Amino acid sequence: MSALIEDYALIGDLQTAALVGRNGSVDWLCLPRFDSAACFAALLGDEGHGHWRLAPVGADECAHRSYAGDSLVLESVWETDAGTVKVTDFMPQRDRAPDLVRIVEGVSGSVEMLGVLRLRFGHGAVVPWMRRDDDHHVAVAGPDSVWLRSEPPVSTFGRDFSTRSEFTVEAGQKVAFVLTWHPSHEPRPALVDPHDARDACLADWRAWADRCPLRGPYREAVLRSLLTLKALTYEPTGGIVAAPTTSLPEEIGGVRNWDYRYCWLRDSTLTLETLLALGYEDEAGAWRDWLLRAVAGDPADLQTMYGLAGERRLPESELDWLPGYERSYPVRVGNLAAGQLQLDVYGEVIDSFHAARRGGLGGRPHAWNIQRCFLEFLRDHWREPDSGLWEVRGPRRHFTHSKVMAWVAADRAVRTLEEDPSLRGDLDGWRVLREEIHREVCERGYDAERGTFTQYYGSRELDAATLLIPRVGFLPPDDPRVVSTVDTVRRELLHHGLVRRYSVECEPVDGLPGGEGAFLACSFWLADALFLTGRTKEARELFERLLAVRNDVGLLAEEYDPEAGRQLGNFPQAFSHIGLVGTALLLTGHGTAD
Ligand SMILES: OC[C@H]1O[C@H](O[C@H]2O[C@H](CO)[C@@H](O)[C@H](O)[C@H]2O)[C@H](O)[C@@H](O)[C@@H]1O
After folding, report:
1. Which terminus of the chain faces fewer neighbouring Cβ atoms within 10 Å, N or C?
2. What's the whole-model pTM score?
3. pLDDT by residue (tens digit) across 450-486?
4. What is the ipTM of this complex?
5. Which of 35, 257, 258 most suits a substitution to test ligand 1, by most atoms within 8 Å of the C-beta?
6. Nearest C-alpha to atom 3 of ligand 1 is from which residue?
7. Ranges for the GH15-like domain (predicted)?
């Protein structure tokens, strides 16, 4: 039986990230980048697919754990009959090879410890050769090499295709393990001092967190979300991944298992707006520059997602040797949705440029050219059906949310021109375009009989994405159509107090078998819509309910099964954490609808 998704904590070095279970096992780690093959893939299989457990002999789970202050340095405390130990796990921010550091510290008594390391490169498929070299245990297979050492050296030996470390820690003693990856054709990189690295790592994260201006009741939750969003950033390029995992299921045992280790324009532009709203201009600027590089070219070739450096080919395939999280099969890498037409993306990107300008981020001369090209593309294509923000794998439709976001694109472009007449653009033509889209959405996307915006033209289905209509400024919050849409979505998509993105009961629009949990980002959007339509108390209650869904270290997956009380989907997911920060800002008077 795998650990629960919410049993994991995240550590990372701004180029990749690892998931550490409450049982002391690192069950997921891709090296050297987020989108590289995993060398620990037990998350999607079992220990034989690679993991590294470090725990007192015979103990199941740590007694409690937390991050050291506002950092990504994880401290797990183990209480045993023989004494107490603390294990500190982190990945030093990188200026060289990636390291995973685990420091065991005796707190009281004398505790026997066991480390079991099973490296399985190639997403759990490749068993490396091991050798000893210069106080290290070295694993090599093909392009990958991993070096393990401990300070002080402890008894470490091979058994059953694993590397075991057996030692005892007394109160006050420390044993530090450092696992270092590097390309196997290169010499071993310089050694990192684990204790100095810990201090530096803590100082870096704290300095970053200190820049958050938000005070008050939600500061701790917001900061953890911000730290998580920052941890999903690939620092060398400024790209931001949607989540560090692939194929954590949206339904246990189901097929809705996708690879999120890529940079979605939608998720990332929302991350940028979130960071910018809190003054994190460096990250926002790095993302904006990433975006300008990634999307350069014909606007018709715009993808919904890219690789960490803007790579375009992300072919989807199935890893048939991995059984999947709790047998949720297939495990996929790559993502077919990259090539879908999703019209909302144009609106999100242009909106983020608009937010960046208003947030004081200095312009880039070619940024406006790209927006103009996008607008011209939309003018010719906005009437086409698309796959929508939910990336349905069924037929393309005229999704109401996609058209609303096409309106956002035109609206922001018009407003930018009005604010800065020195820019070139077809102001009159774009005003007409904005008006045309608005009229059509109100005529064809709104069901007057039911009193609600619908998922797509002519459908009776609902879509929680229509909750964003007041947030993006398409209609004012007190418009009766907005108020009744919020009520209808709340009545029909609410599932044990949280919101489903759409109904999957009868003939699902997404073309996929099976169901899924409540969608956490949509649940935050309902809280926003309730707040904007004046129902502050209900908004706050829903927000508090959502805060309670976070795991013990403040992390959220994509979805939640309220009946089973379990998190579902890739973890931790940027979309959910963006939702959390957005709602907290609204509730505390720091955010506004556009
Ligand atoms: O459910 C079907 C789709 O699910 C994934 O997309 C979802 O995650 C994206 C990243 O967070 C988000 O941008 C999108 O709105 C979500 O629907 C998956 O990546 C798709 O391939 C899949 O069709």
Report:
1. N
2. 0.96
3. 999 999 999 999 999 999 999 999 999 999 999 999 9
4. 0.94
5. 258
6. 391
7. 216-583
